[in-house]
Design goal:
alpha+beta; 11-stranded antiparallel β-sheet; 13 strands
């Protein structure tokens, strides 16, 4: 029989183990290592953002065609290994997003009518954003470092209520507060490759489905997790976080 302090330690360890197990069971209802249960307010883009995957891959794995509608309670697989091996219909992108239409196949050959060199140029044009703009006027107080917590973007200091602006033209694909750690969040799709996110807003001024112009005010600045006024800003390229400083223009 274990007595005294040793017994208390054992009981404490058992209680902690039970709590961890219970928390794990509760969490498993929403997310296991390979799937996720859609919650109210989720969009396919916000789920893809949370798990650092390409929204097109997520749609393909789950046989979800454009416009990528999902519903609360639906279970989404999160990896190719557990995919349902379905391919969604091709996605069309509004001209305002800065993309170009893909070449149509020749009826006789089934292949694009343009040369390989032209096809490469078209692909480059589809990826390119002609102008990136700073989403806020303040200075960068925390730089990109994907290996640390909240390091998948940059933090820009400012004052409460200052304008938060779209970094490029696009369509709002998420406007809500359902992603833990982001507060009031807006995600904008710029083309088939690039998405940008604006977190910790005081007030969101756009809704899902809204088309926005580069430089348009989409929100007002709020407080970050540390209580200071700032904007947390991220860019994703095919679902992967990239350093926004590589895209934003230099400040003189």
């Amino acid at each position: 029989m274990i007595k005294g302090g040793a017994g208390k330690l054992v009981r404490a360890a058992l209680v902690l183990s039970l709590c961890v197990a219970l928390a794990g069971c509760i969490n498993a209802l929403r997310w296991r290592n390979y799937d996720y249960v859609v919650q109210p307010g989720d969009t396919l883009y916000s789920v893809a953002w949370h798990f650092d995957v390409n929204y097109r891959d997520l749609a393909q794995w789950n046989h979800i065609p454009p416009p990528y509608t999902i519903h609360p309670g639906e279970r989404l697989v999160l990896s190719r290994a557990h995919a349902r091996y379905a391919t969604p219909a091709p996605e069309t992108v509004p001209p305002s997003s800065g993309t170009v239409a893909r070449n149509k196949p020749s009826p006789s050959t089934g292949k694009p009518e343009t040369s390989p060199a032209t096809r490469v140029t078209a692909a480059d044009t589809e990826r390119r954003i002609s102008t990136w703009r700073w989403p806020a006027a303040g200075s960068v107080v925390d730089e990109f470092d994907p290996n640390k917590v909240n390091g998948k973007g940059i933090d820009i200091a400012g004052k409460l209520g200052e304008p938060v602006r779209a970094t490029a033209a696009g369509r709002v694909v998420y406007s809500g507060n359902g992603l833990a750690g982001y507060g009031e969040l807006i995600i904008i799709k710029h083309n088939n490759h690039y998405l940008s996110a604006y977190a910790h807003n005081r007030q969101r001024l756009v809704q899902e489905g809204d088309e926005v112009k580069a430089g348009q005010t989409i929100a007002t600045m709020g407080r970050g997790n540390d209580g200071k006024a700032l904007l947390h800003f991220e860019i994703r390229d095919d679902g992967k976080p990239v350093d926004p400083m590589r895209y934003l223009p230099s400040r003189h």
